[in-house]
Amino acid sequence: MKKIAIQGEVGSFHDIAAHEYFSGEQIELACCSTFEEIFNAIRRDPTTIGMLAIENTIAGSLLHNYELLRQSDVTIIGEHKLHIEHSICCLPEDDWESIKEVHSHPVALQQCRNFLSAHAELKAVEAEDTAGSAEYIASHHLSGWAAICSAYAADIYGMKVLEQDIHDNKHNYTRFLVVANPLEAPELFPANKATKASLVFSLPHEEGSLSKILTILSFYGINLTKIQSLPIIGHEWEYLFYVDVTFDSFTRYRQSIDAITPLARNIKILGEYSEC
Amino acid sequence: MKKIAIQGEVGSFHDIAAHEYFSGEQIELACCSTFEEIFNAIRRDPTTIGMLAIENTIAGSLLHNYELLRQSDVTIIGEHKLHIEHSICCLPEDDWESIKEVHSHPVALQQCRNFLSAHAELKAVEAEDTAGSAEYIASHHLSGWAAICSAYAADIYGMKVLEQDIHDNKHNYTRFLVVANPLEAPELFPANKATKASLVFSLPHEEGSLSKILTILSFYGINLTKIQSLPIIGHEWEYLFYVDVTFDSFTRYRQSIDAITPLARNIKILGEYSEC
């Protein structure tokens, strides 16, 4: 049985993503309250696999998770995209008339802004987690409180769904990364089967330094699927680049990395995996 | 007197940024509760200037504001970088012992996560605005409530600062854009004095399509200071690129735009302005 460290409670979107990614396999969840804890869990038990959100079509990239990944020694072994659908739920005996406040993760509250504006009588309260809010209300039997979470979490905790699909933007997808200890990774996913890789490197603030790297990648037939620059704090004229690439030939991809390495600073391969 | 539309209340970080950017000038603030309203205010009164946050060193880019900018007909005429410093404040007669909940904008709450963890007895409540929370507590005389906002806002609303600099990361900077109606822009900032520009364009998901654009820019001596790719929802194989460039020669910059235009789709210059 695989042990999967996720951020959030049973019923959270990380839980749903983990069960979809490992569908057909027996998994045991290790629920972590922060993303840092996922990395600590893998450090303590190298057979633990981590699952963490990395970007959302509406909220953008989770820069902090990129930073954790860059500084860690874990490697990406897979990715999963999940359609995010929010519901509002309460205790079975409560209803629209009796609920007074709604608890959820700040990002979920933000993604239901139109719904919350239309229900100005509900006080929005920030909580650690979407599913965790439902769990807390159910276990403490908090009458008058509602939670925003998935319908799946509402069901798990015996809550009543008042309304489904209350998020503003229906194209709400989150991309999750599956990460593991690099010594365990080859057994979980053989790198030479990879069709995608995530890289990070830094470049001096110099005309054409990025165009050289991208031109070489294109000469090797490597596709760019994501690029994001970040200023390096304390190094005014240096930038970090997070890049995702896809490719048909793993050999050509590896050759392209050899070709760009002398031109980039501190290049790090965050993982080689299968595009989903 | 210039009329500046900002997001948030008097005392908000947008207010501070506007007063710093227009220091020495008389300005009148038009406080908007959403970023959309800033654009509406400029549409209603073309002489109104807008000021909106576009990225933060910790939270990343405000993708929604990029999208508003792309779809609007306003142009960027300037930028300003502000060091974000959060304080916790309450009514003068309240103190650590008597406060029970702390209200602020979700991003501000997130940026003070360590502080809030260390004060688990305080319930974090999401509000529209940082300064707005201070204003609300002061005007309703809400004993037991605290707000997270700037020390400047606390002072404006006669609140007592309990602790300053409660944000986790001291390198917390927000970059603001100054935007205006394009017909008014030349008088506010003559484009030929520009040293920086923001562009958006789309590219097919094709090997080397981005590297061609960046190579041409580098041939013209144009520096890249930011690049961010975004998938276009509903167009699986097409990407949007938001790019900031800096340059010494405005003529060379304009020539480089002419040179890349045939290779990019729907290129739009979001503004030409002075690097800050």
Automatic annotation (TrEMBL), chains A, B:
Stored InterPro entries: ACT-like_dom_sf (IPR045865), ACT_dom (IPR002912), Preph_deHydtase (IPR001086), Preph_deHydtase_CS (IPR018528)
Start and end residues of each Prephenate dehydratase domain: 3-181
CDD domains, sorted: ACT_CM-PDT, PBP2_Ct-PDT_like
Enzyme Commission code: 4.2.1.51
Record flagged with keyword Amino-acid biosynthesis: yes
Catalyses which reaction(s): prephenate + H(+) = 3-phenylpyruvate + CO2 + H2O
Pathway stated in the Swiss-Prot or TrEMBL entry: Amino-acid biosynthesis; L-phenylalanine biosynthesis; phenylpyruvate from prephenate: step 1/1
Gene3D superfamilies per record: 3.30.70.260, Periplasmic binding protein-like II
ACT domain span: 198-274
Cross-referenced PROSITE patterns: ACT, PREPHENATE_DEHYDR_1, PREPHENATE_DEHYDR_3
Keyword Signal carried by entry: no
Record keywords, A-Z: Amino-acid biosynthesis, Aromatic amino acid biosynthesis, Lyase, Phenylalanine biosynthesis
This protein's name: prephenate dehydratase
